Amino acid sequence: MTATVDAPPSQLSPVRFHQVGKAFGSGRKAVVALDGVDLEVGAGEFVCLLGASGCGKTTLLNLVAGLDRPTSGRIELNSSRPAVVFQEAALMPWLTAAGNVELPLRMAGVPKAQRRAKAAELLELVRLAGLGDKRPHELSGGMRQRVALARALASTTDSADAGKPSLLLMDEPFSALDAITRDVLQGELLRIWRATGTAILFVTHDVREAVRLGQRVVLLSSRPGRVVRQWDVEDTPDAVDEINIALRKVISSHAAA
Ligand SMILES: Nc1ncnc2c1ncn2[C@@H]1O[C@H](COP(=O)(O)OP(=O)(O)OP(=O)(O)O)[C@@H](O)[C@H]1O
Ligand SMILES: [Mg+2]
């Protein structure tokens, strides 16, 4: 008899898609957003998901986040509860920055002193130390995204899931920001990713952003979205050019359909 050695939970892939499909509605009016998607994000890995508008990127993130269910296939989740950062920060306007970061901890039943300390630590990590008592309307767009990031990190550090790899889902989080702020926040996100070791699945339609941030770039076809190609960024010398050509092909094949 052979003994199987299971990988420790911290080394399991936080998420794995097996032939995942998602259709909205049914019958002739059904919109097939995703079809036969196979995708894996490794523990601590930074994966960027790229594709034309409407190809199903947000749908895919929503499935991982548990906000929606696949209509076919299976999603294997091996992480603490995934946290999402959206294009707009979606902060609670009546709460301070610190209050927003504390919210997921409060919902998880973390005692007050402990969540205060955690929120302060996370606000420092996103370089907002000293601004914890500001309300969202008093902050710039970039600062609000920093708060949203800190809040997402707070919700991935749920003690009930200790030991499991964490997973952060980001849906075009910087696309509403000006170019300089976006550049700064991309650098900050890389620093935070290295510091925390969390896996990140990051949606963008900006090839440069995908190549700067991701270790791996995954290209989805136009609707229905399926994985067309993947690149290991380190092993691809002209990644930006190469991926741009592939993305343009995907978009033009859709326009011609
Ligand atoms: N709740 C829904 N009900 C019906 N159709 C939906 C729903 N959500 C998404 N869709 C459809 O599924 C397809 C994929 O949408 P999705 O938002 O995932 O695209 P996307 O790749 O995120 O696009 P973008 O880059 O513009 O954000 C679209 O055709 C969209 O109209
Ligand atoms: Mg989207």
Structure classification: alpha/beta
- The shape, in one word, is globular
CATH 2nd-level architecture of the largest domain: 3-Layer(aba) Sandwich
Strand content: 15-25%
CATH superfamily of the largest domain: P-loop containing nucleotide triphosphate hydrolases
| Poorly predicted tracts of residues | none
Describe this structure in words.
By secondary structure, this protein is of the alpha/beta class. The chain is 36% helix and 22% strand. The protein has helices at residues 57-65, 97-107, 112-125, 141-156, 179-196, 207-213, 239-256; strands at residues 15-24, 31-41, 46-50, 72-77, 83-85, 167-171, 199-204, 216-220, 227-232. Helix 2 (97-107) packs across helix 3 (112-125) and helix 3 crosses helix 4 (141-156). The longest helix has 18 residues, at 179-196. It is globular and about 55 Å long. It starts with 14 loop residues before the first strand and ends with a helix. The site of magnesium ion has 3 residues, from helix 1.
